[in-house]
Design brief:
Layout lengths: L2 H9 L7 H20 L8 H4 L7 H48 L1
Helix pairs in contact: 2-4
Length: 106
């Protein structure tokens, strides 16, 4: 294998969609909400109803909080369920493959 092909393989990231990947994304989404909440961004969401900007970053903070909230409420449960179903499906496929190989050998 040439040096160029090795470097191309190393530099080309591959996104592996696995149940663990779904869990990591769910944890990241929950952590993003947690950080926004701990930083006190919730108080800035009142600009949506009142329209008053208290400081320059209020709109950005409000959008960050609301976006992370939507991720927590909508996306995280979907990712957790998808992860569980994906893992169960993978186990079932592996089990059926191992059973078919054992029947062929007999």
């Amino acid at each position: 294998m040439s040096r160029q092909s090795i470097f191309k393989k190393l530099l080309r990231p591959r996104l592996m969609i696995t149940p663990v990947f779904f869990l990591h994304v769910a944890i990241l989404g929950a952590a993003a909400f947690g950080v926004c909440h701990l930083l006190g961004f919730r108080q800035y969401t009142s600009i949506i109803t009142t329209g008053g900007l208290r400081d320059e970053g209020a709109a950005l903070k409000a959008c960050a909080y609301l976006g992370s909230y939507v991720v927590l409420v909508v996306l995280v449960p979907i990712l957790l369920l998808a992860s569980a179903l994906f893992a169960a499906l993978q186990r079932a496929v592996m089990r059926s493959k191992s059973e078919s190989h054992s029947h062929k050998e007999s």
